Amino acid sequence: MIKVLLIFLIACFGYSDYFTGKSLQTRPLVLGPLVGLAMGDLQAGCVIGATIELAMMGAVGVGAALPPEVVSGAILGTAFAISGGRDAGMAVALGLPIAMLVMLLRNFLFIVVVPLFANRADKYAAEGDIKGVARMHWFGGIFGMYLPMAVLVAIAYYAGSGVMQNVLDAIPQFVQNGLTISAGILPALGFAILLRMILNKKIAAFLAIGFVLTAYVGLPVLGVAIMAVSIVMIMAFGDFGIQKAAAEGPAEMEEEDDDF
Question: Can you give the pTM of this predicted structure?
Fold first, then answer.
């Protein structure tokens, strides 16, 4: 029960992201280590959280496209994988279906429950009751969305930890291998979704350089990151002296003419 309570608190922390100014508490990179700490395996939590983050990096709402429910997928995927002694690939394979399923519940709350508080807030607004509008804002967020979701995550972990262990043990090895391979493809899919939003002809060359450095030169990711930071610093500050001389040049020439 202690672990269930900790999972519930972690879910509350993740779902309180809107109340704390969108500080990225929902991301698997943050929630994975917390779950690992609660489960007694911080290293596995870090590894699994980072892997799920890669798979869900592009899971953002764009227009009418609804992303998977990242918090539940990250928490339950990490918790089930650690409790079952599985690897990060299995965590991703479990986390994504969970996230898609919980997304349906989140949409139900948005469509059915949250509008009840919004309609009540409209009545308070018509009466000029500012405090009432503020209360509905808080109550709608807590009781209409985030608390039910956190309770669902805790119940799912409590009901599914033992059952999930049996399910994982019953999965044939060739299916587990397939899930691991597919989980390795999902991070690339997450990067592809992200690149569709940010990639343009100005930065495409840098993407190609990074690919060549890792795929053919064998440079580690940390080395590529350090090189990228160095390139950015050169682009931002490398020609500062030239710009400064060009800006100060006319004034200095005028002073020289006056002295002459």
Answer: 0.61
